[in-house]
Amino acid sequence: MSKTILITGASRGIGRAAAVLAGRRGWSVGVNYANNRAAAEEVVGLVAEAGGRAVAIQGDVAIEADVISAFDQTERTFGPLDGVVANAGIVGEKQLLAEMSAERMRRMFEVNVLGAYLCAREAARRLPTSLGGRGGSIVLVSSVAARLGSPFEYIDYAGSKAAVDTLALGLSKELGAEGVRVNAVRPGVTETDIHASGGQPDRAQRVGTMTPFGRAGRPEEVAEAIVWLLSDASSYVSGALLDVSGGR
Ligand code: NAP
């Protein structure tokens, strides 16, 4: 069945791979991005090439009006939503907690926690069957950092992802009778730009060699789990925290 979905942070990395995979299923995709319009437009083209439809939507997930607007634009373009992927996220530079500024921690929690909660809230206002929605699936992109704690690197990031896990646990119960499933995918170290943005461009390769598989994951491997959770194939799965971490 064709679906309409919104993916935040879909211009690069894991979100981009999920958008392209959704395109292969013929789905319609709202491709949210923060700054990189050219990358988002490229993803729109790739989704179309794959057999789906897409629209690029600028917006900062930490800003409530931007989140609402991203939902509105997706629904105006493609019709009612069936799924939402709260994927946009940031890391910070490698620091001890003792070194972190309040400003850094505030931005971390604004994007990773408030952003995910606003997206989930907006989905919870639109997808439930009792509110006239079609039911559907909410996928939150967390991280194995939520259970590892990321000591000596970014404890703030790890804590932000623990809040995302808890969102999946609670909201899945609130929406269970509404035809809406809520799950979190927890990637391990994955080959994307996020590591360079935190000042460690070699991190995926370095940490990857220390995992049971001896390598980092690819964004496409995480996308498979996201799209499965969006699809009807996972119809009895809700409240799950699915690690895609090569056994780490
Ligand atoms: P990435 O390659 O750095 O891409 C980040 C994406 O998020 C980009 O599309 C970016 O848009 C967008 N974005 C950043 N801040 C945003 C904001 N405030 N509002 C809207 N969009 C925003 O990241 P990634 O590695 O694919 O990470 C995706 C998710 O997976 C994140 O939640 C991350 O924490 C999680 N994760 C990643 C790894 C990993 O090793 N890569 C591991 C565990 C979990 P622009 O292109 O416009 O900047």
From TrEMBL:
Top-level taxon in the UniProt lineage: Bacteria
Transmembrane domains' residue ranges: none
Alphabetical list of Pfam families matching this protein: adh_short_C2
Keyword field: Oxidoreductase
InterPro entries per record: NAD(P)-bd_dom_sf, Sc_DH/Rdtase_CS, SDR_fam
The keyword Oxidoreductase appears for this protein: yes
Sample GO molecular function, one term: oxidoreductase activity, acting on CH-OH group of donors
PROSITE patterns: ADH_SHORT (PS00061)
PANTHER family tied to this protein: NADPH-DEPENDENT ALDEHYDE REDUCTASE-LIKE PROTEIN, CHLOROPLASTIC-RELATED, RE15974P
NCBIfam families listed in its UniProt record: PRK06947.1 (NF005400)
Family: Belongs to the short-chain dehydrogenases/reductases (SDR) family.
Identification of the protein by name: NAD(P)-dependent dehydrogenase (Short-subunit alcohol dehydrogenase family)
Native source species: Microvirga subterranea
